[in-house]
Design brief:
single chain, 3 domains, eight-stranded mixed beta sheet
Amino acid sequence: MTAILNVLLSILFLISSLSGSIQEEQLQIRMRRNWGFSSGTGSIQGNFTIMASGPEDLTQVVFYIDDQIIGEVDESPFDHRFATDDYPLGPHQISAIGTTASGDELVSNLVQVEFVSADQGWQAAGNIIIPLVVVILAAIGLAVIVPLIFTRGKKEQLPAGAPRSYGYYGGAICPKCSRPFSRHIYGLNLGLHKYDRCPYCGKWSLVKRASKEELEAAEAAEIAAAQEGIFEPQISEEETLRRDLEDSRFED
């Protein structure tokens, strides 16, 4: 019984070794889009590169579209460029045959594609891109509109010179009230600037990320303005009403 088991294990090991050896000797091709359209499901249009890979002693690769030779490469990298517009529209098979230094021929895998016209390619691309653009614009709109709704009329009452943590997005200096504030995640990115809202004056402006020195100078200017009586923290309507109610308790 043990002898039979050993024989079976040896056969399985031999099959596995042969399978691995065959796998290593295979010629594989894949495609890369240089420019043009690719649906991801086989429909393509434009300029593409077929790339072949195989054993180390590979010396030549012949590329085919259907049964037509479209290129021969005699040294690595074994790549060949082609344009779909040079061939009839419709379904095609792309393949390759490689030759090793010992003279062995290797047949590649088949790549099934369909060449489509430029108009079809642009139309298909538009069907993908337009909904994506709509989603992006909607997300940008929500990023601006939602904060407007929830922060409308609300202003922070941070005293001049109070400690600040500017966070991941850094600090900016409001061009309207000159106070430094933390840039918000909902601010709209426009290159080097953000369209953001100052929490102190409530105004929206284009602001850039200020340096540490600029923020420290703005904080010092804020304190100096407060000492001179120029800066007066604004009192919200809710705070004004609360103070009026408290004062009314002492009136006859």
